[in-house]
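call fold(seq) -> tokens
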Amino acid sequence: MEIKNLRDELNSLPYHGRGIVIGKSADGKKAVTAYFIMGRSENSRNRVFVEDGQGIRTQAFDESKMVDPHLIIYAPVRVLGNKTIVTNGDQTDTIYELMDKQMTFEQALRTREFEDDAPNYTPRISGIIHLENGDMNYAMSILKSADGDGSSCQRYTYAYSNPLCGKAKFIHTYKCDGNPLPSFEGEPKTLELPDVSIDELTDLIWTNLNEDNKVSLFVRYIDLATGEYESRIVNKNK
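ret:
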């Protein structure tokens, strides 16, 4: 598996769509996650991240310009006990509610499919971090159309036990720019996770996302021993 440089990977595309990064810090003491959104339409760009309990939600920056909240207003991050859920849509709530009823991450996502935004059929990408006995494991999922055919849904789940220190996985919605937008392909990418503070990582990600298309970024470091966390939010709209 090729290990990619975070800066280079973020600069490799002008439009990743939405992206999730999950990994373990270089010192092995923290779970690290980041979630960003990008937008090309005025409606998609008219958003900010705001804190919501232990998680975050999206909201309109200018309510008067909100055309359609469908698919763009949701809670990207929620916390269920020792589990942190990160997704690009309202499947966050599906995962939270069904896992609270003792279903698994994968079982919960079998009840969902890609977004109903033909012809793109934007994939639903999801991640979950599970803290246990001072360590972590995590999983990522993508639900996408069959090569752009909206009649068929393909579901892939990737589970990572005993993740390596200083490494992360990165999944995003689109393979590249286009019309329609082609879905992400293959396994989540492996990234070298730099040994930096949360502020430095936040700045690194935000600086290297495409200036025209980036909208909002969320970064969280979770202490594996205590479960305590610190978060950062950056919004282009201020």
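DSSP finds five helices and 14 strands in the chain.
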